[in-house]
Design brief:
This protein is an alpha+beta fold. It has 36 helices and 58 strands. It has a 19-stranded antiparallel beta sheet. A five-stranded mixed beta sheet has the order 3-5-4-31-30, covered by helices on one side. A four-stranded antiparallel beta sheet has the order 6-7-8-9, with no helix packed on it. α6 runs antiparallel to α16, α11 packs across α15 and α31 packs across α34. The longest helix is centred in the middle third of the chain and has 40 residues. It is elongated. It starts with 7 loop residues before the first strand and ends with a helix.
């Protein structure tokens, strides 16, 4: 609520809110040039002023609740209230109450604001187009400005694509023009003509936004307008179309930074730059080069705490990386630039002349200067830097530059003596004056004015009177008006603490900025620095310098946030979240780590000596820095808590560098104005202390955090205070941990540095890397030798924080502590032994100390070092336990590079157990060999992949099982030439069932073998394809030996006995045209001896034959003609089909017994379940199956999976069709099922899932059998009709042997052939025969769908001619109508389903009626079933549909039907169903189903189908 109580003071009425008299009020004071500040507004908490922008005679004010207030002259509507009536008191702008204002700017007589949605509104004077919405003279209400709209793209031709809606973040107003910048760093301007860079030679005004094309390759971060000139800050963008996601962050920065009355600071942009590459990939600590960083062991606990809580985009990862991040280089390359253009009458562009510029020009003298704020006055410009320096240029007629002379054409640094207890915080410019705000240590912030008033007093500046109870937060100025915003100085404890912290932050920043300018930057220009990368530790010092600059950016940003908190009084609602942000802590951790690394390798001393010798660092610069260091403690505000600070500093901070806090450091020379002569020693100390300077802040920051926690005790307790207190305590503990680790790390680094200086050069060159810290070494005090060392043998043992070293003359053995074990049998507490044993991956060290006490000291040091190294390892999170206490883990995950033995020059990363490779890991050799998989006792053991390069682009890859370092079990190998073997191995040899593919499909010499192997040779049953010929038979010693058949692409079928790869003795030869030869052979297709040659027409020749089939053959014998009386030309279709006996004709007598095929697959299954040696307890077998399933399912993701059958994958969908009604997703294959052998339904559910799971031994067996069957009977050479009996016999054998294998696991299964009724509860639709538990009922529905495609293809080929005859008859019968066909088939009239009379009482012929449609569609489904029992069910259902149709038509369901009447009807249904390959379907059922099943009604129905 706003009060009506207002007072008039110098033309303005004071705006006061209710409760504005409380202690938390915020006030706004304004004054004109030469006058004293007068109160303009008083706001009550929680409303706070965020920004004030002043025009010539009006002002805008933005508050923390996103509301806009206006006051002053309104002659042309510059207040935007819809009228031209002046306002003497602040007035809430009604237009923006619901729009959430984010940014404001006031020009001479016009105004602008940006909402949080990025939309720009302007109002007021528009006579010169300065509002950007046309040329209306003036606007009394806000109007939305369209920037680069799609309909005006020709104006916005900046290059690159523009979004349809431009999101703006900043705006600035001049006398008659306006400037704005978007979230992607692009700049637009409009208003009065060419003097302001809007046109080249045209005085016309620009009334619409015009993109500044010249800055298309720049990302603009700040803007401001003078009366007739512009100034902005940018950095080069890498991509002109790049758009950075910094909109919200930069706007938030602008909203709260009330010190920046004209523009936002660049710290947010710098922060984003510093974060851009901080998410480095974590790699092994030993895989990187020695000069790449890992966090020091003393800081490891802190890093672990940080890792769990940090945002990954903010975190600086403190581990080694293989590739250098782009963070630092990007930051160094993004140099800030200051650009100016417009009127230059007084040199306000800073370009060295007074020539006006129509396009932006860079101010070269400010290139790279860390600009915190830029501001443009009437005819002068000011740049304020992050190190609190002011650069001024332009008109100085009123002394507004703080310099001598009337003008300054280039930026000059302004020297202002505001006292050592004050720091410049912000600047603002008016038309002829400059305003400065300083923050003082006593919280009495001061406002100074630089103008003619101060000049008359012969001073650089004049002090503006500020009430002692006011805490000035921000200033603003423009034209002749000025103002400051203040909060009541109520001595709030948190305010005092934060204010002192801000002062310290600014002091520290200025100190390290001076150090960078005088020490670091000159050093980086030396010749030594150009080659520093090649020096040991060179990367370390380079990264230290870069991180030093990153730390400067972080401190600058932290200070800005502190200013914002103090200015907006957010501390009143305990908004201290900025302190908890991890970016500053992380960069401190990083900087401390790199500093200690550089200190340890003594690179700081080397750089200092080089710089001193090159005279790059002047004595004057060194003296200035010595003064900073000498006076460091004088800047600390110790009045309130000096005792606690001293206590902490004495306990936690290194004393060897700076000594006690209460006295001047002894190591720092006393620098006087004369008589001080710099030495190399002082130079070394200077550089070290300069680099240590930022770390001095740690002790002060920790005390501040503790005092903040104590101050919360004075605030009434609440959930908020408890939460904030807990957060601050946690943060304090982390900073304290850093300080403690820094203290320990500093001492350790110094000790390590002394060790490197004293050791031998060879040892130093070999081991001196930044990560190492000395812990213990062999000396007179701590001697250590081999237990049985010779008299003159002298070894030096050195314990570092990361490695254990054995050094002897010219040899050196280095073992990482992560792979060092103390013998588990060692007892460190033994008091009667000097000997202990250390185990490394390559050797066991039996060592002897000088005494039991020395032995205990060495063991304790080694144990603690190992624990610390494991905890700081990047793989520590992989461990299942925390490394704490005194127990060393024997099972570890670590990396190691072998230097000898079988793994020489191989790098291993993985699991270990007491010095042995054990568990999952990866091994890489320098020659390109690689193994990833399981290890056991230093050997490949388990699943793994081994890659052996053959040449630069070809490798041999094995994926599979290993045992004791050799291929053992199932696996696949791809050879470099493209050959591939998939199968079983034994002792690195192909052994068992396997597939060998050689060459490619297009290669004429390609071959393929699937079958059994023995000791790398084909042995047993196998199938071999080569050059168009396929052999299916027995092998021995890589040659055909035994029964077999040969099929060629020419259609020749050979069967017989082979010896030494040749067909010899009696055999049979058949061709596609049914020519057959039975007799003696001497080789493949070479006839040699007696035989009978039978022609397709039945004629034959009996005698002796000699020659190769297909060429000339010599015959000596008798010709016998077939008796034509034996031929029957009128055979029925069924009579033409071969009988089961014909399928087992004489050519099958020469083939391999089906039970001898694929023996290796069944043996491998028995081997996996433990039944290969005979009988086994089913429980033990199931335990082996469970172990096998868990082994494959729980393997690490990086371990390659076992190869699966490619051919079986292609029939998954076919198999699933036949099993869709029996699968059960709830079946758990990892446990033994509780299923009785007579529960058919439960067995089918379990097996249906097991068959589909390649991790289950049963699934792998079925998958391999199916693959073998498909390879046997698919393909061009395999599509031979004579293979049908072989395929049928093999299918039956597979099902029978698979059933016998299952009886091992399910002993209740009956012997095949016994009739045992299932105790499952099936539905009525199942056949009674299917209720009997047998191989048919159990396995046919599961196995036959998988082998159905090749099997049924052979049936179709075998019956090809008969099928054509059948189709011709069907086509002839299809021409008849149903009625005519029924009459021809002799169907009883009652079963024709036609009424005797129609509706008129006439005889009904019904020529077009469709009959028995359901029965026909049911019978057509026979082709969609894959097992014979399922097909028989279809036949049964078809008969049921016939009965149902008759009963329904005549409404006579109780009458029995004679089969003599039904058979013709069924004949009719078969004809109308037109089933393709019906003969093959009948033979399939007949061959695969035993006669014991085809009994009774089922047998009659099947016979009817035949």
């Amino acid at each position: 609520m706003e009060s009506s109580d207002r007072k008039e003071e110098q033309g303005y009425q004071v705006y006061e809110e209710e409760h504005a008299e409380n202690d938390n009020q915020m006030k706004v004071y304004m004054w004109d040039q030469g006058a004293q500040p007068q109160l303009m507004a008083s706001l009550s908490y929680p409303r706070r002023v965020l920004k004030i922008s002043l025009g010539q005679q009006h002002a805008l004010m933005l508050t923390s609740d996103d509301q806009l207030f206006t006051i002053g002259s309104n002659s042309v509507g510059q207040l935007g209230l819809g009228d031209v009536v002046d306002r003497k008191c602040l007035t809430l702008h009604p237009y923006f109450e619901q729009l959430d204002t984010a940014y404001i700017a006031a020009g001479s007589c016009h105004s602008a604001c940006i909402t949080k949605q990025g939309q720009l509104y302007t109002w007021g004077d528009n006579s010169l187009g300065q509002c950007g919405v046309g040329l209306d003279p003036f606007l009394t209400t806000p109007v939305k400005v369209s920037v680069c709209s799609p309909s005006d793209l020709q104006i916005c031709s900046c290059g690159g694509d523009h979004p349809s809606v431009i999101e703006l973040v900043q705006v600035a107003c001049g006398q008659a023009h306006t400037l704005t910048v978007s979230s992607n760093g692009q700049c637009w301007t409009w208003g009065q003509g060419c003097d302001y860079g809007l046109a080249d030679d045209d005085d016309s005004d620009i009334a619409r936004p015009l993109c500044v094309n010249e800055l298309a390759d720049q990302f603009v971060t700040q803007i401001d307008c003078g009366l007739q000139h512009n100034i902005l800050v940018s950095y080069p963008r890498q991509d002109p179309n790049q758009k950075e996601d910094t909109t919200r962050q930069r706007r938030a920065k602008t909203d709260v930074n009330i010190n920046n009355s004209k523009s936002a600071t660049p710290t947010e942009i710098k922060r984003k730059i510093s974060r851009s590459g901080s998410s480095n990939s974590i790699t092994s600590p030993l895989s990187a080069s020695p000069d790449i960083y890992a966090i020091d062991f003393a800081l490891s606990s802190l890093r672990q705490q940080s890792d769990s809580s940090l945002d990954t985009t903010e975190e600086f990862i403190m581990v080694e990386t293989k590739q250098r991040s782009s963070t630092f280089s990007d930051l160094m390359q993004r140099t800030t630039l200051v650009w100016t253009w417009g009127n230059n009458t007084y040199g306000q562009l800073g370009l060295g002349d007074k020539t006006a510029r129509h396009i932006p020009c860079a101010v070269e003298s400010l290139k790279g200067v860390p600009i915190k704020k830029i501001t443009a006055g009437g005819y002068h410009s000011i740049a304020f830097t992050s190190d609190c320096q002011i650069y001024a240029w332009g008109c100085n007629s009123h002394g507004q530059l703080g310099l001598s002379g009337q003008t300054s054409l280039i930026p000059q640094q302004v020297e202002l003596s505001v006292g050592i207890d004050q720091r410049i915080s912000s600047v603002a410019t008016g038309e002829n004056h400059t305003l400065i705000l300083t923050f003082a240590t006593n919280q009495q912030n001061q406002v100074y004015r630089i103008d003619s008033v101060a000049k008359k007093k012969k001073d650089t500046y004049a002090n503006i009177t500020v009430p002692p109870e006011d805490y000035v937060c921000a200033i603003a100025s423009n034209y002749g008006q000025s103002c400051y915003i203040s909060a009541r100085l109520e001595n709030h404890p948190i305010q005092k603490i934060l204010h002192e912290l801000l002062i310290q932050d600014r002091v520290l920043y200025c100190q390290i900025a001076t150090a960078k300018k005088n020490i670091l930057s000159p050093m980086k220009q030396t010749e030594y620095w150009k080659g520093v990368r090649s020096i040991n530790g060179g990367n370390c010092i380079r990264k230290l310098f870069e991180t030093f600059e990153i730390l400067m950016t972080q401190l600058d940003e932290f200070g800005d946030k502190l200013e914002n908190i103090l200015a907006t009084q957010d501390y009143l609602n305990l908004n201290l979240t900025f302190i908890e942000q991890n970016s500053l802590l992380n960069i401190y951790i990083r900087y401390a780590t790199i500093f200690l690394d550089a200190l340890a390798v003594d690179i700081i001393t080397k750089c200092a000596n080089s710089a001193w010798q090159s005279n790059e660092i002047t004595i004057a610069a060194s003296s200035e820095l010595w003064k900073i260091i000498n006076n460091y403690y004088k800047t600390l505000p110790l009045s309130g808590f000096s005792s606690s600070l001293k206590s902490f500093a004495s306990e936690y901070m290194p004393k060897s560098l700076f000594g006690s806090i209460s006295s001047k450091p002894d190591s720092v020379p006393n620098v006087k104005s004369s008589g001080f002569k710099e030495t190399a020693k002082s130079h070394e100390t200077l550089l070290e202390e300069v680099l240590y300077l930022p770390l001095n802040r740690l002790k002060y920051f920790i005390v501040v955090l503790n005092d903040l926690v104590q101050s919360l005790g004075d605030i009434p307790s609440s959930d908020v205070t408890e939460k904030v207190s807990k957060q601050l305590n946690n943060l304090s503990a982390r900073w304290k941990s850093l300080a403690t680790s820094l203290n320990d790390g500093y001492n350790s680094a110094n000790e390590t540095k002394r060790f490197w200086r004293d050791c031998s050069p060879k040892l130093r060159d070999h081991l001196c890397i930044p990560q190492l810290r000395l812990i213990l070494t062999t000396s007179k005090k701590n001697p250590l030798q081999y237990s049985k060392a010779g008299r003159y043998t002298n070894h030096n043992f050195i314990l570092f924080n990361r490695v254990f070293v054995r050094h002897h003359t010219n040899s050196c053995f280095v073992c990482p502590l992560t792979t060092l074990w103390i013998d588990p049998n060692e007892d460190p507490a033994l008091t009667n032994s000097n000997v202990f044993t250390l185990i490394t991956p390559e050797e066991t060290l039996v060592l002897s100390a000088s005494s039991p006490i020395a032995r205990s000291e060495w063991l304790n040091a080694i144990q603690q070092a190992i624990l610390s190294s494991l905890a700081s390892s990047p793989y520590s999170k992989l461990q299942k336990r925390q490394y704490g206490g005194s127990i060393l883990p024997q099972y570890r995950y670590a990396e190691y590079l072998f230097s000898s033995g079988d793994y020489r020059e191989a790098k291993y990363l993985g699991w270990w157990f007491v010095g042995k490779l054990h568990g999952h890991g990866e091994m890489r050799w320098n020659d390109g060999r690689n193994y990833i998989g399981q290890f056991k006792k230093n050997l490949f053991h388990g699943l793994g992949q081994y890659t052996t390069p053959v040449n630069h682009n070809q490798s041999e890859i094995y994926v599979g099982e290993w045992r004791s370092g050799k291929r053992y079990g199932y696996g696949t190998i791809k050879f470099a030439n493209g050959d591939e073997y998939i199968g079983f191995w034994y002792q690195d040899m192909r052994h068992g069932h396997g597939i060998m593919k050689q060459g490619t499909v297009t290669n004429s010499n390609s071959s393929f073998y699937i079958g059994e192997w023995s000791c790398d040779s084909k042995s047993g049953y196998g199938i071999y394809d080569h050059k168009g010929k396929r052999y299916m038979g027995i092998w021995a010693n890589d040659a055909r030996n035994g029964e077999g058949i040969v099929i060629t692409l020419d259609g020749i079928f050979l069967a017989g006995s082979f010896n030494n790869d040749r067909l010899v003795g009696n055999g049979i030869l058949l061709t596609d045209d049914r020519t057959k030869f039975v007799g003696e052979f001497s080789s493949d297709a070479i006839l040699s001896g007696k035989g009978i040659l039978t022609f397709p027409n039945g004629d034959r020749i009996e005698g002796s034959f000699s020659g190769k089939w297909g060429n000339s053959i010599k015959i000596n014998g008798s010709f016998i003609r077939q008796n034509t009386a034996d031929l029957d030309e009128e055979r029925s279709f069924y009579d033409m089909l071969p009988s089961p006996s014909e399928l087992s004709s004489e050519e099958s007598n020469y083939a391999v017994n089906p039970d001898k095929k694929w023996l290796a697959l069944f043996f491998q299954f028995r081997l996996e379940i433990g039944a290969h040696r005979g009988e086994i307890d089913p429980k033990s077998a199931w335990n082996n199956i469970t172990d096998a399933v868990e082994k494959l399912r729980n393997k690490p993701a990086s371990v390659p999976s076992l190869p699966t059958s490619r051919s079986s994958q292609s029939i998954t969908s076919i198999a699933s069709i036949g099993e869709s009604d029996i699968t059960d997703s709830d079946v758990d294959l990892s446990v033994a099922p509780d299923i009785k052998g007579t529960d058919l339904q439960a067995l089918v559910k379990y097996l249906s899932k097991a068959f589909d799971d390649p991790s289950h031994p049963i699934g792998r067996l079925v998958e391999s059998l199916v693959e073998a069957f498909r390879y046997s009977y698919l393909g061009i050479a395999a599509n031979h009709r004579l293979l049908l009996p072989h395929a049928v016999g093999e299918a039956k054998s597979i099902i029978q042997r698979l059933y016998e294998s299952l009886r091992i696991l399910f002993p209740d299964l009956p012997v095949d052939g016994e009739v045992v009724v299932s105790n499952s509860s099936h539905g009525e639709e199942h056949l009674d025969a299917q209720e009997a538990v047998s191989s048919i009922s159990l396995l046919h529905p599961l196995v036959l769908p998988r082998i159905y495609p090749p099997l049924f293809t052979l049936y179709a080929l075998n019956n090809e001619q008969e099928e054509e005859s059948y189709k011709r008859k069907l086509r002839r019968l299809a021409k008849y109508t149903d009625l005519i066909l029924m009459k021809k088939l002799g169907i009883n009239k009652k079963f024709r389903l036609i009424p005797e009379k129609d509706e008129n009482g006439e005889p009904n012929e019904c020529e077009d009626c469709v009959h028995y449609s359901h029965a026909i569609s049911t019978l057509q489904q026979i082709s969609t079933m894959f097992s014979p029992m399922q097909k028989l069910l279809i036949v049964k259902d078809c008969f049921s549909e016939i009965f149902k149709a008759v009963d329904t038509f005549w409404n006579d369901s109780g009458t029995l039907k004679a089969m003599d009447d039904i058979l013709p009807v069924f004949h009719f249904v078969v004809v109308r169903a037109e089933i393709s390959q019906l003969g093959s379907e009948i033979l399939f059922i007949q061959n695969m189903v035993d006669d014991s099943v085809l009994l009774g009604e089922l047998d009659m129905m099947f016979t009817t189908l035949q």
